[in-house]
Amino acid sequence: MSALDTLRRYETPEGIELEMRLAGPVVRACAWLIDAGIRLLLYIGLGILFAQFGELGFGVMLIGFFLIEWFYPVLFEVQTGMTPGKKAMGIWVIHDNGTPISWPSSLIRNLLRAADFFPFFYGAGLLAMLANQDFKRLGDLAAGTLVVYREPKKERHPLPASEPRPPPPGLTLDDQQTLLSFAERSRQLSPQRRSELAEILAPLTGREGEASETMLYGYANWMARGR
Questions:
Q1: What pLDDT score does 37 carry?
Q2: Are 200 and 193 in contact (CB under 8 A)?
Q3: CA 20 to 30 Å from 165, out of 16, 118, 121, 217?
Q4: By three-state DSSP, how is residue 87 classified?
Q5: Is 24:111 a contact under the CB 8 Å cutoff?
Q6: For 16, which DSSP code?
Q7: For the whole model, what pTM was predicted?
Q8: What letter does residue 98 receive in the DSSP assignment?
Q9: Residue 214 in contact with residue 159, Cβ under 8 Å?
């Protein structure tokens, strides 16, 4: 794998391949600055609110500061996978296998921010990120987490209308995915390109030209309906 490649792939036990695009130090630093600004506003709000209650208010304020500092990121990461800063930058935190982050993992990665901060201003965390291909700081290494870009959900295009036809037996999973991909993308392709691709798949249909294309749409509709 190239050292410059930031795309990671993980195959689930069900045979589904997940693609994850890693978030680097710059975008993560921007997200941290946004979250730091939000936390600062919360600190100021707490200070104004409890300053009038004397020593009791001061004690409650310190507890509030502690909870905000350590549990602000944990709460957002477990609920949505991302803090407001990460959401603004289009990134989120997940487990190495692509599953949503859990309470224990989020607690570990955030409690270890203290170690990442040494010797000053996240120096250790930055060195750790630059030393491994997954851009993991110390907290990510301990918790088994990744910070990746949150890709927008891909809209599935409707299949062309065609009478569902059972495909020939013995099609592999790759063959079926190719057929469905061809049918879904057909409206985005020129007629010449559709005919060219249909000719490549002609051995499956035993037909040529437009007849082969129509037959492929029928196979795709059959498979899409789970028959």
A1: 97
A2: no
A3: 16
A4: helix
A5: no
A6: P
A7: 0.69
A8: S
A9: no
